Amino acid sequence: MTQSAFGQQQAVTTEWVTIPVGGQAMQAYLARPQGEGPWPAVLVLMEIFGVNSHIRQVTERIAAEGYVAMAINYYHRTTDNFELEYNEAGMTVGRQHKDQTTRQGILEDLQASVAYLGQQPFVQNPERVASIGFCFGGHVACIAATLPQFVANIAFYPGGVANSAPGGGKPTIEYAPDMHGQILCLFGKEDPLIPLADTHRVEEVLKQSQCHYEVIRYDEAGHGFFCDQRADYRAEIADDAWRRVKALLSKTLKH
Question: Residue 72 sits in a domain of what CATH number?
Fold first, then answer.
């Protein structure tokens, strides 16, 4: 285990853990406040680049706010966890693994993760958890919204959610009638990977759901605006998004 701290927030303890999924092993990075807890739980859903330093930092940052945060490697069927760089080569490799995921496999990973959290004495009420995902992870957060344990789901620039699904089949957003709880979608208006029309499609279909939703579109923001390792990072927008994240997690998990 390692320890880190974020300013005046809670110091956190981190470790890599292994989660059994259908006879296989899925790696996950777990961070939690120091102490005995228990604390509410949040699943962190990676981009195509693996549970890399950015995703681990987000996981620790959430833990520092008073949650058990766990980032899972849902590429475990095709590779152990890796770290890819934010460049064309990294995108090529990451997409190759993404293209081998399926909706059913992701649902199994999410359910196994909740089951694992439920076995930990420091987790408070595993029947009420949240997810937060980035890019493809944002897409996965929208899949998580169909599971009853996920009472809040935060999707940063969820790629492909309007017109595709892992492994094929109807687009993920068309499962909106099965979604519930709270959903927050955060898009950049200048995202070259997510047409603005797709963001309106997401909002339109979410109106049919059983969830409370909010769709935010940021001016002058491209893809990856929350990640300070990417060229599209926008500090003020990232700060506003983080404020929204904290408010939603507190509202759904701490009250």
Answer: 3.40.50.1820
